[in-house]
Structures are given as structure tokens and as C-alpha cells.
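ok new one. same drill as before - C-alpha cells go in, u give me an amino acid for every spot. 368 of them this time. try not to just spam alanines like last time pls lmao
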């Protein structure tokens, strides 16, 4: 394989695609997944896995007869299951001559720009050395308000983090349908999506699995992030033979998501601002600023500002609102709230153009 054909691929596998009918990790399903990843590795591709399954792997050993519903029991099950899951992955990859590594992250790791860049550098080293990083949210310590939401969202953010060439989400469905195929016998598989419209969002149903946490809605949000980041994506059924190789080659049965507007792709800095940062405060702007920062792509200047809300530090991300407090943009401010409150002359824009992400460029709610 020539270097031009080598791809960096992020693959998300859901709990329902790794578990048996009893809710426990299926060794056979795990082996099939690893065999397909090995085929990609042998073909010269770099592969990163975002794998669910920690709670499913651990809850029975915790003494639960079914998947727990309380947060402490889920976290306890994850603390058992994550080790068991990684042990199985490591053993299977080593049997093929490949090393797997474990990366457990929280949303805090992505919201802090230094930690975000450190994670990016670490994963890049692993991929360049031929290692298979296996990423999961650190469910044992993460609380609900600081969660990514689910591993669909996490996989899209990881794909942006590592500048992936393709995001593959494997699930228990064949792809995106025109309607819920379990309820509408006339539902048709949609092979390609160039833009996620309101109609597509309204047609998105939930997963039929009681094992996983993400339904079709979460997958649509994940594909919005990927498409805004300029990363093609694919949704297909995990149990299909050779689905990964087919997806990479572009001829798999499923749904491919790829933005039709390459000019709107967010760079790495703007991806972090849009999808990972935690805004610290708010700046309410005059009506004239709407056109300046949204249409004309100009920096945010002091004369645009009506007032500020909250306290924020220099280089913090802030929400930029109109007078009715509708969100217009996110931006990295050059000044703290205390400095701006002094109303003294300043020699820089409050937010530079390159540190500004307008709402129209952000296809999902802030912080998703």
C-alpha cells in the first residue's frame, strides 16, 4: 500500500455490538472485531478504537443480575469491567503481533487546552509507533454533568483531536434510514448524507438496545461534529463480515456522512473552541456586531460591547450574545473581565478573528 492510501481511522464500537444476549461481553464478537482491525493494520492503516463495554463487562462480577441503573453501581461495574475489557483486547491484539494501549479520559481533559494538546501528542506518538490506542471515558470517576454524553460524541471529538481521515461508528443497525425501520416497513437506507437537515434529525429514532447509552440521535450529533471538522464518517452494522475494510474502501453497505462544503471546515483550534472548551463568561454585544463578526468575519472590538456577564480570565473562552442573549459565537478573549470593566484603552481586539467561532459554524449545542 502506498503512503497516499494510508488512512488514520477512528472506530467506535458500542456495547450492544460487543455483548451477548445476556448482556455480558461476547468473546466471539470481540475476536471478530479485532480480526478486522488487524486486517486494517496489516494494510498499513493507523487505527484507534473508541470502545464501550466496561459496564457490560463488569456488572455481573459486581453481583448484579442486570445492568445497574444507579450511578455508583455503574461506576463500580466500570472499574471492574474496564480492566477485563482491556485484558481481552490486549491478549487478542498481541496474538496478531500488535500492542494495544489504554486511554481513559474525561471531559475535563478536553476542556483544558493544555491537556487537550497533551492527549493529542500522546495519541499521535502511539499511532505513529503502530500501537492500537483504545479510548474510553473514565466512567469510574466521571459524574453526569461532566460526561461527554456517550461514546458516539466522544468518538467524533477524538477523531477531530487526531485529525482522523475517517470516523467509523459500528452499531446494531445498518445505517441511517428515512424512518425508523422497526416501525415503518417502507423505511429506506440512506447511503450518503452531505448535510444533516432538520428532516434527518426528526427521523432519527433511538437504539433498540438496553445495553448501550447512545441512540440514533447521539450518532447524528456525532456526525455533525465530524462533518464540521472536515472528517468523513460511516455508520454501519457491526456484525457484517469485513465491514471495516469495506467502509475504508468506500464500498460498504451503510451510510456515509461527508460535508458538501469543505470551506466551512473548522481547523484544530476552532474545533477545540466549538466542541470542547468550557465558556467562563459572557459578552453581550451591540446589534452592529452581528454583521461584523458573523458575516464579515471581523474581530470583536470594544465598541461592539454593551456589557459583560460573569468573571473570566485572559485567554478564556466566552460566549458572545446579542442583546436578547441569543448566542452568536464563542471566542477566546484577549482580556479578563476585570480588565474590560476598567473601561481603559486597549490595544488589541477583545477577540481575534482566528479565535472566534460563529454560531452558524457550530452544528451542535455548546459543550456537547
Amino acid at each position: 500500500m502506498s503512503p497516499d492510501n494510508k488512512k488514520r481511522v477512528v472506530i467506535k464500537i458500542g456495547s450492544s455490538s460487543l455483548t451477548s444476549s445476556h448482556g455480558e461481553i461476547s468473546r466471539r464478537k470481540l475476536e471478530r472485531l479485532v480480526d478486522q482491525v488487524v486486517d486494517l493494520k496489516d494494510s498499513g492503516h493507523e487505527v484507534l478504537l473508541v470502545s464501550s463495554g466496561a459496564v457490560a463487562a463488569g456488572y455481573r462480577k459486581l453481583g448484579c443480575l442486570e445492568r445497574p441503573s444507579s450511578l455508583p453501581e455503574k461506576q463500580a461495574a466500570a472499574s471492574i469491567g474496564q480492566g477485563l475489557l482491556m485484558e481481552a483486547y490486549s491478549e487478542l491484539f498481541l496474538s496478531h503481533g500488535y500492542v494495544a494501549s489504554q486511554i481513559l479520559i474525561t471531559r475535563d481533559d478536553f476542556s483544558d487546552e493544555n491537556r487537550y494538546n497533551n492527549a493529542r501528542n500522546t495519541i499521535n506518538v502511539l499511532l505513529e509507533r503502530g500501537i492500537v490506542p483504545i479510548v474510553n471515558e473514565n466512567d469510574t470517576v466521571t459524574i453526569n454533568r461532566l460526561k461527554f454524553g456517550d461514546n458516539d460524541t466522544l468518538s467524533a471529538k477524538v477523531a477531530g483531536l487526531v485529525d482522523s481521515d475517517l470516523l467509523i461508528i459500528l452499531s446494531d443497525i445498518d445505517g441511517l434510514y428515512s424512518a425508523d425501520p422497526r416501525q415503518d416497513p417502507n423505511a429506506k437506507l440512506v447511503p450518503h448524507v452531505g448535510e444533516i437537515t432538520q428532516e434527518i434529525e426528526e427521523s432519527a429514532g433511538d437504539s433498540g438496545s438496553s445495553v448501550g447509552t447512545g441512540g440514533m440521535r447521539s450518532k447524528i450529533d456525532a456526525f455533525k461534529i465530524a462533518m464540521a471538522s472536515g472528517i468523513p464518517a460511516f455508520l454501519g452494522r457491526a456484525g457484517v463480515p469485513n465491514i471495516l475494510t469495506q467502509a475504508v474502501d468506500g464500498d460498504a453497505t451503510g451510510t456515509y456522512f461527508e460535508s458538501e462544503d469543505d470551506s466551512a471546515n473548522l481547523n484544530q483550534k476552532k474545533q477545540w473552541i466549538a466542541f470542547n472548551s468550557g465558556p467562563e463568561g459572557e459578552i453581550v454585544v451591540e446589534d452592529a456586531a452581528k454583521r461584523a463578526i458573523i458575516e464579515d468575519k471581523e474581530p470583536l472590538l470594544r465598541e461592539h460591547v454593551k456589557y459583560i456577564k460573569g468573571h473570566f480570565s485572559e485567554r478564556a473562552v466566552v460566549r458572545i450574545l446579542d442583546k436578547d442573549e441569543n448566542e452568536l459565537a464563542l471566542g477566546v478573549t484577549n482580556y479578563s473581565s476585570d480588565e474590560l470593566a476598567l473601561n481603559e484603552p486597549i490595544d488589541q481586539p477583545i477577540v481575534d478573528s482566528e479565535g472566534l467561532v460563529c454560531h452558524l459554524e457550530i452544528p451542535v449545542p455548546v459543550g456537547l
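The longest helix spans residues 71-94. and btw The chain is about 35% helix and 20% strand.
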